[in-house]
Amino acid sequence: MAIAEVGISAPSLILSLLPTLLIGIVMTIVSTVFLITTTPKDQKVTKTAEPTPRIQKMRRYAKFGFLIAVASSILQFSGNSFRAGSPNAPYAFPVLHENQLFLSVGILVGILIAFASTMSRILMEPAPAELQIRKILGVVLSYVSSALLLFTFGSFGLTLPIILPLIPLTLGIYLLRSKRNRLIVDILWILPGLLLFLGVAFNFKGVLLAADWSDLFQQISIIGVFNIVLMLGSAIFLLISDILAHVKTFVKSARRGLVSVLILIIVLATLFGVPLSRSVGVRPGSATGLSGSNTPFNVYSINASATFDSKNNLWIYQISARNYLSEETEIIEISAQKQPPSYFTLISEKRQLAPPFGEDIEVAGGEKTSEKIVVMPGATVTLKIFSKDPLLSIALIVKGGRYDISFLSFVT
Hints:
By secondary structure, the chain is α+β, with helices and mostly antiparallel strands. The chain contains 11 helices and 16 strands.
């Protein structure tokens, strides 16, 4: 969707806003760590039975911000999900659909208000260093997970990715509410975190390199992977800190806050460092990943593969898909993410392959012009894309959908 008046696309604006959320979170954590580690040794931790008026005010602000985010997400979902008739019919709520950009901003602003208010409330409540860090991790997990849920629900509805933030969200709430040491519960939190890490976050470098950063779904996926790594790191930190709580030397140490911070940094650095140290490349063979909507092509019926012509030094990418609609559809754009030359590069170069649809793209089963590829109802279109450079992923943009085909593999 484009906002013609200002010439800005909703994904482009959200791309610039999501890092702001992460930067704000990081800066808050750093400042809080400084506060914890520089607390005078003779300062005693006390807590009043009744919350102060300032704390109560912060709670109201947090609820108000979260209400804004939830309402914006529901309105965004309504504008995206309901059509008057067929899949290509006009949207039932055109005003909401045309203002997706502003509703997305509403989600982000609401989450930021709720996050800042909750963090301020926590800093106003005196607590031991380890408990303070646990609460900070709980706030970060809770609000990053909430943002992911609301953005995913508002933009894509009740899809499978909406399940992924639920476990980190539950751990975040647990960290905020629990104040006791439960070693068995800590281990139980590590198990789902480890499964999510190995199943999703271990491929973090591949997700970064193959992602088109102008696409909203890709942005949400990257933040989701970050959230999973943070969840496992929080669970490991929780286990270590609860074990150290039984060590008298640690409990009586004046440096227990600093030690806790160092443990957290080491755990997170390790969990982020291991996936980012993997080598990523392109190998001949079938596509390694597929994602997209169900209109007008069924993404599960896409057959895609990559081959290398050593004689002509060319990569050949073949993609087939069937138009299952009762009307013709058009492929209006093809883009790709080029494999970077350096091992240390984490963001790949985006290549615009078409339009124009030239000689480097062969088409069978569809009508190719310089501006688009037209596919008739029930027809299967086969594309052959020739490239001198290895491409980590290729995106087909059609009217009403987008399909990302990944060809990357991890080199061992």
